[in-house]
């Protein structure tokens, strides 16, 4: 005869075995959903180099770049039954040295990021609770307040374009983070490009990376980087003033 402790251990072992087996199937099932339709395109809108303290904890003044960009991305195909959220980021790749003969690899710096959560499933705990156990309003004043807020939300939603989860349409977006260099100089740095990357965090399984990141595993899809550009001269310097005068003379 088995004791109650042995029976509890057997039931718990069987439960963990089944749970791990189901989790493994869920993680491997993503391979059947390659998401070839994922696409992201970024282009430069404006860039300027300023000398100052890029962060509040900076101890000295240095040159840093502020960038504005346009982003068009459709990552809705990356959402499936095993997707928890997607981390999307825009990064700049530029030369690590201002010398043309340098053999150093390019530096990469993230300038903007966001997290896109997966839409709530109709079979989630919160959805089922609201369906079978709806919250009761305590007073008619709250009902009127809810009606007014819902009406205002409907009018504001009708004005704005409704986008599917994973679709980003950003125009003249300001970067969240500035770009600085260990040398303290960034003006007139050559061959700078902007690109888009993402990480797909599943409920179960490994973290998936965007194509071109060099990491594995990675998803399918297409990433269109911006055209190469150069950082402008330091704002307020003689070089920037001369370029502004030349552009003004050409337009005149």
Task: Describe the fold and architecture.
The protein has 4 helices and 9 strands; from the N terminus they run αββββααβββββα. The longest helix is centred in the first third of the chain and has 25 residues. The chain is elongated, with a radius of gyration of 26 Å. The protein starts with a helix and ends with a helix.
Poorly predicted residue ranges: 155-160
Structural class computed from helices and strand pairing: alpha+beta
- Number of DSSP helical runs: 4
What is the share of helical residues? 25-40%
Largest sheet: 5 strands, mixed
What's the total number of strands? 9
Q: Approximately what portion of the residues adopt beta-strand conformation?
A: 25-35%
Following the backbone from N to C, one meets helices and strands in this order, namely: HEEEEHHEEEEEH
Q: How many angstroms separate the termini?
A: 100 Å
Q: Please state the overall shape, judged from the principal axes of the Cα atoms.
A: elongated
What do the pLDDT scores average to?
A: 80
| Gyration radius over CA | 26 Å
């Amino acid at each position: 005869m088995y004791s109650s402790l042995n029976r509890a251990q057997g039931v718990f072992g069987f439960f963990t075995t089944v749970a791990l087996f189901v989790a493994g199937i869920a993680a491997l099932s993503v391979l059947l959903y390659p998401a070839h339709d994922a696409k992201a395109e970024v282009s430069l809108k404006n860039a300027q180099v300023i000398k100052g303290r890029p962060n509040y904890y900076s101890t000295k003044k240095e040159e840093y770049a502020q960038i504005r960009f346009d982003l068009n991305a459709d990552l809705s195909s990356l959402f499936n039954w095993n997707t928890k959220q997607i981390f999307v980021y825009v990064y700049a790749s530029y030369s690590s040295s201002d010398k043309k003969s340098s053999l150093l690899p390019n530096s990469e710096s993230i300038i903007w990021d966001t997290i896109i959560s997966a839409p709530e499933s109709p079979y989630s705990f919160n959805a089922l609770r609201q369906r079978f156990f709806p919250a009761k309003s305590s007073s008619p004043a709250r009902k009127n307040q809810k009606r007014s807020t819902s009406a205002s939300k409907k009018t504001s939603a009708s004005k704005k374009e409704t986008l599917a989860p994973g679709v980003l349409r950003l125009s003249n977006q300001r970067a969240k983070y500035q770009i600085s260099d260990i040398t303290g100089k960034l003006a007139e740095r050559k061959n700078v490009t902007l690109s888009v990357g993402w990480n797909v965090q599943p409920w179960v399984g490994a973290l998936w990376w965007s194509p071109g990141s060099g990491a594995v595993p990675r998803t399918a899809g297409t990433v269109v980087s911006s055209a190469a550009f150069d950082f402008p001269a330091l704002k307020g310097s003689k070089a920037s003033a001369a370029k502004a005068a030349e552009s003004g003379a050409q337009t005149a």
